[in-house]
Amino acid sequence: MHLGQSIHDYIRNSARAFGTISKMISQHQLRTIIFYEWRQGKSAREATDVINSTLGEGTVHRSTVSRWHNRFASGDISLEDKVRSGRARNIDEDELLRAVTANPEATTRELSTILGCSHSTIENFLHVHGYRKVLSRWIPHRLTDAQKQARVNICESLLFQPNRKDFLADLVTGDESWILYDYRKRTTVWLPRGVEPPTQPKPNPHQRKHLLSVWWDMRGVVYYELLAAGRTVTASIYIDQLQHLADAIREKRPRRSKVYLQHDNARLHVASETRQKIAELGWHPVAHPPYSPDLAPSDYHLFQPLKHHLRGREFKTYSDLKFAVNDFFESQSPDFWAKGISDSPKRWEKVINLCGEYIVDI
């Protein structure tokens, strides 16, 4: 049996028995595997991919494999840390902090290999100094400097405009979001030991859905549509919706003399025929920076509570789904709608203070 076959058989058999076994592999065993992959002529990248695919993602970083490959190529095939004069090496705090800053995704095992000390020492040091391993947070888009500046400029113009109180009172904000038929999630249940858990079918990833278009102000929903299944909004449909919105404003807000319409920069919202319709209605479009859902009240205030209201439920018909959406709208207090609009200046100010970066709500 070849050495390579023995090593790979060991890895496969261990992985089959224990799943991800990166935590079971000692530092010396890991270096042996790195050495073997180097002897097979694999590049540092190829060796890293093989090891991580077999032992589990994050077992070793490419920079670590590359460093050992360079060491082997120099003629030093020892798998031990280099001997230093004097006492055994203590952790170099500055070097560790530099390593963490350079690669925040590094595992403690990778850091221990780089610094030549145990990963428990690394863990203890990071814990004492207030470090913790957390997931990165999603943002809608990687903003360019120009886009950040546009966000700042528009937020400043909105924040410092005269008669801001009247502006917010006359603001009508609109947006779209997909509404699904099935909002059930896998549930956890308490069961006696040895009792099999109940089964639950997976939701259909291609299930039916409807696009919700909604416009609202400080007093509540003015107008909404739940489009037919699979149908999306085009410029011509949006123009018809704006006319329906105008009719609803005349009926529900008869004393309103001004309308400041806020919507995002979707192509259908800025199409020439759409802008012409808005001008025809005598409305004032509100500037909205590109890629900025964190500044759209429907995105940061309305849609998440709506989806929470639908969570855990499955709807059989369009009527049932529309009833549930309407029930959510009608069940919200006046303060809910007022807060969604009145919080806008705080968010404009925050974007300015963040120099255009996203507001990341937790």
Automatic annotation (TrEMBL):
<dbReference type="InterPro" id="IPR052709">
    <property type="entry name" value="Transposase-MT_Hybrid"/>
</dbReference>
<dbReference type="InterPro" id="IPR009057">
    <property type="entry name" value="Homeodomain-like_sf"/>
</dbReference>
<dbReference type="InterPro" id="IPR002492">
    <property type="entry name" value="Transposase_Tc1-like"/>
</dbReference>
<dbReference type="GO" id="GO:0000014">
    <property type="term" value="F:single-stranded DNA endodeoxyribonuclease activity"/>
</dbReference>
<dbReference type="InterPro" id="IPR041426">
    <property type="entry name" value="Mos1_HTH"/>
</dbReference>
<dbReference type="GO" id="GO:0044774">
    <property type="term" value="P:mitotic DNA integrity checkpoint signaling"/>
</dbReference>
<dbReference type="GO" id="GO:0015074">
    <property type="term" value="P:DNA integration"/>
</dbReference>
<feature type="domain" description="Mos1 transposase HTH">
    <location>
        <begin position="28"/>
        <end position="76"/>
    </location>
</feature>
<dbReference type="GO" id="GO:0031297">
    <property type="term" value="P:replication fork processing"/>
</dbReference>
<protein>
    <submittedName>
        <fullName>Transposase domain containing protein</fullName>
    </submittedName>
</protein>
<dbReference type="GO" id="GO:0003697">
    <property type="term" value="F:single-stranded DNA binding"/>
</dbReference>
<dbReference type="Pfam" id="PF01359">
    <property type="entry name" value="Transposase_1"/>
</dbReference>
<dbReference type="GO" id="GO:0042800">
    <property type="term" value="F:histone H3K4 methyltransferase activity"/>
</dbReference>
<dbReference type="Pfam" id="PF01498">
    <property type="entry name" value="HTH_Tnp_Tc3_2"/>
</dbReference>
<dbReference type="GO" id="GO:0006313">
    <property type="term" value="P:DNA transposition"/>
</dbReference>
<dbReference type="GO" id="GO:0005634">
    <property type="term" value="C:nucleus"/>
</dbReference>
<dbReference type="GO" id="GO:0044547">
    <property type="term" value="F:DNA topoisomerase binding"/>
</dbReference>
<dbReference type="InterPro" id="IPR036397">
    <property type="entry name" value="RNaseH_sf"/>
</dbReference>
<dbReference type="GO" id="GO:0006303">
    <property type="term" value="P:double-strand break repair via nonhomologous end joining"/>
</dbReference>
<dbReference type="InterPro" id="IPR001888">
    <property type="entry name" value="Transposase_1"/>
</dbReference>
<dbReference type="GO" id="GO:0046975">
    <property type="term" value="F:histone H3K36 methyltransferase activity"/>
</dbReference>
<dbReference type="Pfam" id="PF17906">
    <property type="entry name" value="HTH_48"/>
</dbReference>
<dbReference type="GO" id="GO:0000793">
    <property type="term" value="C:condensed chromosome"/>
</dbReference>
<dbReference type="GO" id="GO:0000729">
    <property type="term" value="P:DNA double-strand break processing"/>
</dbReference>
<feature type="domain" description="Transposase Tc1-like">
    <location>
        <begin position="94"/>
        <end position="156"/>
    </location>
</feature>
<dbReference type="GO" id="GO:0035861">
    <property type="term" value="C:site of double-strand break"/>
</dbReference>
<dbReference type="GO" id="GO:0003690">
    <property type="term" value="F:double-stranded DNA binding"/>
</dbReference>
